Amino acid sequence: MTTMKEKVVSGDTTYVISEDDWPYEEEMLRNPHSMKHWQRYIDHLKNTKSLNLNTVFRRALEKLPGSYKLWSNYLCHRRGQLKMKRIDDKMYEDINNDYERALVFMHKMPRIWIEYSSFMTEQCYITRTRQVFDRALRALPITQHHRIWPLYLDFVSKHDISETAVRVFRRYLKLAPEDTEDYIEYLISIGRLDEAAIKLAYIVNQDDFVSKHGKSNHQLWNELCNLISKNPTKIKSLNVDAIIRGGLRRYTDQLGPLWNALADYYVRSGLFERARDIYEEAIQTVTTVRDFTQVFDAYAQFEELSLSKRMEDAANNPNPTAEDDIDLELRLARFEHLMDRRLLLLNSVMLRQNPHNVQEWHKRVRLYENQPHEIISTYMEAVQTVQPQLAVGKLHTLWVSFAKFYEANNQLDDARAVFEEATRVPYTKVDDLASVWCAWAEMEIDHGNFNGALKLMHRATAMPSRRVAYHDESETVQMRLYKSLKVWCLYADLEECYGTFRTCKAVYDKIVDLKIATPHIIMSYGLFLEEKNYFEEAFRAYEKGIALFKWPNVHDIWKRYLEKFLQRYGGEKLERTRDLFEQCLEHCPAKYVKTFYQLYAKFEEEHGLKSRVMSVYERATEKVPNEEKFTMFNIYIEKAADIYGIPKTRQIYEKAIDVLNEENTREMSLRFADMETKLGEVDRARAIYSHCSQICDPRVTSNFWQVWKDFEVKHGNEDTMREMLRIKRSVQAMYNTQINMMSAQMLNTATAVQSNEIPDAMRLLDSKSVPAEQGRILPPKDTISFVRGVTEGGNKISQVNNPDEIDIDIDEDDDNEDEAQMEEEVPVEKQLIPAQVFGGLRTNDDD
């Protein structure tokens, strides 16, 4: 059994030491100032859960009062003993005393201060806790204050000690002004809005202020405006009007919210008339539709609420006076007037954005409908404001509309004065000035002043003191107006209607001399001369136009010229007419020659020789585009048949077959063969079918083979039918061979690429020189030959059914012989019908 002894330690404190503790006590006697031995002793007591632990801690601290480790462990141990203790327990005060004793030696240790301050905050001793924080700030160096202030601020914010908290925040902001936003939030939370607004106004005026919450200066401005506008009675230290107007000058992209905030401030202050003035000022100064919409909606809502409030008061008042009724009507009229002005106010905003927008000025005039004085003022302001170089739209339309307004009100002198002033404006384009002159002349025409209109056009087209280029933008538009086609066209029309022949002709000649004429003007000039029976003058006008323009612009002039010339002279001047046609066709593009050749051929047919008609059509078949050659050959054949008879068309058919594409060639060949059949030339027709068959794949052009089959059934015999079937199989084999050759060549090429085997040049040359043998069809330009399969010994393995075969009653021996003959393949050169076939079948009638 372990024996126990009592021992008195440090004064009046007595405690029991167990036998296990004696070795540690002896160590302490030998080394009383050894931190290691005291820590070993303390750890031993912690493990044994001895009641002497506090006493040993105090003994150690008496020997080593400057040990931060001992004080920290001791205070942590003491706080751990507070578990399950009430807040008013005596032990709390004992621990406070321990902290005070520790701070005698550890007053430079921020951790001790932090723990003590937190411990005091838990006990809710406001004054003592504040004093601890103050002592900590005085004891610690300023570099350590950032560890104390968050606890201090959190402490004063938790309790209802606003005055103390404000003073603490003010002290803190001297050290950390970047945390002003936290102070402002606290002030707003406790209702001290005046000081909050002052601090917020201070930071928004600091250009170098950086928000810790990432807010921009603009956001801070909005917060300030919302704060001061919604609390006008609580904020007395700031000039709200000056502050918000300063924001209006600084943040021009947020004018709408700022104007609304200023107006809201006066509304909450009860100054309704002042608020109405602010709204009016806002809608007269904002420059964007978004800001205008925000201000106008707020203004309309304000007026509506004011009206509804007045109506409620009137309804609750049983005895309304005359002043109440007048005030109610005044508010209602003010609200209606505001809503009626919305479009006009919006138009003012658009014009403030860009005062040079012509379309917006026109809209403004339309908004002033039935208000002549306002319309005139608007036009005057518009023409004085819009600069020609900056105008968006056509400036001359403003001047013209202004003059037409006076014209509509029968003030012609004022309209002429406006036009006169409009002709002096330095427009950017000549066409604008020309439009003004034309509008002025049209006004004079509408009122019957034809001579005045002619004089205006004469003024407009007068030659300047020196000739200038039309596109020389360094010159004024007034100097370049004499080359304006719009003015000259109107001048020519006026001269035609109200002038003399001589003056009108002079105008057209002047247009041609200035080289500003168009094909339409040339034709109008010619038509005018023809109406006056000056046909040769008209033809000379057409020739001037032809000399001015090139193809294709000259197409309509040539067509009109030739038609009118033929209509005038007919067949009287053959050589001159032919010369005109030749001049026209000399440089005529293929796209337009068809019309002129047909006109030329018609002329020769009516007044010339038949041989010339055929010559014209032959030239036409050579000159027209490929897509029109088929049509032209049909016309050529039809005319040849009418003039010389059907046999003469053979040469035309042959030429057509040579030059047309495959599809048209097949159609032409069928017609040719049909014609020969009707003439009784069966052999000729068969030769044509045989010739055309080489471009007729049986799988695609089954119609051709059906026509040939019907022909042979009607006009042929067994031999010709078998020959037709043989040619059909031969042609089909030829097309199949081409397809198979392409497939095989592609396959061989792919195989050679995969195996890196490329045929040498000699092998290709040998393969191309393989002779044509019996039963083999050689492709013209490929290295792969198609060999028809034949069974050795003449034994038939299978019998092929030919769908085109016809049933003809013949003897069995002849049938076998013909079938054997049909099994043979003839070389390609025997299948193709040479060109001499047509010549060999000709008769004396062909010539």
From TrEMBL:
Keyword Nucleus: yes
Superkingdom to which the source organism belongs: Eukaryota
Ranges for domain Pre-mRNA-splicing factor Syf1-like N-terminal HAT-repeats: 20-178
All copies of domain Pre-mRNA-splicing factor Syf1/CRNKL1-like C-terminal HAT-repeats, residue ranges: 388-757
Xref: Pfam families: HAT_Syf1_CNRKL1_C, HAT_Syf1_CNRKL1_N, HAT_Syf1_M
A biological-process GO annotation: generation of catalytic spliceosome for first transesterification step
Record-linked SUPFAM superfamilies: TPR-like
Ranges where the record places region Disordered: 806-827
GO (cellular component) term, any one: post-mRNA release spliceosomal complex
Biased composition, class Acidic residues, residue ranges: 806-826
Subcellular localization, as worded in the UniProt entry: Nucleus
Record keywords, A-Z: mRNA processing, mRNA splicing, Nucleus, Repeat, Spliceosome
Pre-mRNA-splicing factor SYF1 central HAT repeats domain segment(s): 181-386
Cited PANTHER family: PRE-MRNA SPLICING FACTOR (PTHR11246), PRE-MRNA-SPLICING FACTOR SYF1 (PTHR11246:SF5)
Family, per entry: Belongs to the crooked-neck family.
Protein name per the record: Pre-mRNA-splicing factor SYF1
Species, as recorded: Fopius arisanus
